[in-house]
Each structure stands twice: as C-alpha cells, then as structure tokens.
Design a protein that fits this description.
Length: 256
C-alpha cells in the first residue's frame, strides 16, 4: 500500500513506542512524529474539553406508527441466518389482529422496524424469521451503515418500548419484556460509550444473555440485528426507506 510505516528510516514519520522488554511489551514511552506524547502509561497531551457528537433527533413512536394493514395473502419475510450477514427471502401467511399484521412468535415471524434517527420520519416496518423471540423486544442504534434505530420483537407494544428507550438515551442497545426494561446507553454518536471498556463489555454480555432468555436462538442476536438494515448485502434487508431486495437492488413490496 506504499504506507510510510513499518520501519525507522530517514524520511519516515517517527511514530514509535519504547518497551522495557520483548516478552510482555510494557510500554515506557510513545512518540508520534518524533514528539513524546506518553510516558509510563500517562499521556503528556494537554487535556481539552470536547462536546460529544451525537446527531440524534428521532421522536418517540407509538404502536399506531408501526401498524401494518394487510394488502396481500403472503408476507415477504427476511430470514436471518445465524452467524451470517446475508438473509434469505421466504414467504409466510400474515397473522392479523384487529386489522393489523402483527408478530407471530409461535411461527417465529416477528415484526422488525427501522426508524430514522437523524430526522423525524415514519418508521419502516417488515417481518423477519429466525430471531426466535417468544416475548419482549430488542433494539439498537448500532445498525450498519446508516446507524438508524433497528428493533425486532414479539409484539408491537414491546417493540415501541424498546425503540423509545433508545430515543430517550439518544443511542444505545435496549431490551424489554413485560417485567423489565434494560438500556445500555451509547451517547457518543449513538455508537459508543464514555464508560470503561470492561464495564461496557460486562453490561453488553448481560443484555445479550437476556435476549437468549427471551427465546432468541441466535448466537449473537444484537450483532445479527445490527446488519439487518445493511442494504448492500442480499437478499432482503430493511432500511428507513422500506424493504429492499438486494438481488434486484431495488425497493420491494412487503406483500407478494
């Protein structure tokens, strides 16, 4: 790649570290462009106050906002594949309640919602299989690549609660059921935390475990969820603009 890295020679940037030995690599000093910026684990860079960036302007949603009127005999359903980014396209009979197409946990057909978090907008709604939730809902503002809010759940009320938790915190990973609400806030751009990394890893592990307790059969339900809005990976994904067929590279109808 013709990068000026990997060696210390005339003309290269003097970016380097000094370690006390070659076994455990305890760093004694760090240099960037020839300037000492850290010594013995402490930074020498002057501290400045920065405003945490976070473009988050979504407004709370209601069950009415994610209702779906039946317009056909068959639903076009996203089929999540465990450990993969691609999905399949399958067809299923819609479960209808009070004129609204709803999640069907018994047949593992769940409602999935993507909400634009940068502006006030109507949620996009579709259905997905293989998440396995028997109750409750999960949601996240980590949703490649646009990082809107994406949620999936066993009923409309829980999906809305999970989404609104994230809106309240202006970013995060959430889980709800009839008994509890859990939110892991991600206030930096809706993607990162300012807390200790080990603490965040522990909290993420807990909420991931809770998702399995709700019935998810996926190894990493939140990780899988984060790729369900990535349109460039086929076959069927959901963006804030609607359901997208990755094979035809065009938006498609929810009903077939």
């Amino acid at each position: 790649y013709d990068l000026e890295v990997g060696a210390l020679q005339t003309g290269d940037p003097a970016d380097m570290i000094i370690v006390d030995n070659l076994n455990d690599f305890r760093v004694l000093a760090t240099y960037v462009n020839g300037t000492l910026i850290a010594r013995n684990g402490k930074t020498l860079i002057r501290s400045v106050t920065e405003t945490v960036p976070n473009n988050f302007h979504a407004e709370p949603v209601s069950t009415v906002d994610i209702s779906v009127s039946p317009h056909g005999n068959k639903l076009k359903v996203m089929e999540a594949l465990d450990g993969q980014l691609i999905t399949n396209i399958v067809h299923a009979d819609p479960k209808i309640k009070d004129g609204n197409v709803v999640s069907d946990p018994e047949n593992d057909i769940l409602k999935i919602v993507v909400l634009n978090r940068y502006n006030k907008a109507k949620p996009a709604v579709a259905f997905i299989r293989n998440f396995g939730l028997k109750r409750g809902a999960i949601a996240s503002s980590v949703a490649h690549d646009s990082h809107n809010i994406v949620a999936v759940g066993a009923d409309d009320e829980q999906v809305v609660r999970a989404i609104n938790l994230i809106i309240k915190e202006k970013g995060g990973v959430s889980l709800v059921d009839s008994r509890e609400e859990i939110i892991l806030p991600l206030p930096v751009a809706g993607l990162m935390s300012v807390e200790d990394g080990y603490k965040i890893a522990e909290e993420y592990h807990k909420i991931d475990k809770k998702a399995h307790e709700l019935g998810s059969t996926l190894r990493a339900p939140f990780m899988t969820l984060s790729f369900m809005a990535l349109l460039v990976i086929p076959d069927l994904k959901l963006s804030d603009k609607g359901l997208f067929d990755g094979r035809k590279f065009s938006f498609t109808n929810l009903f077939s």
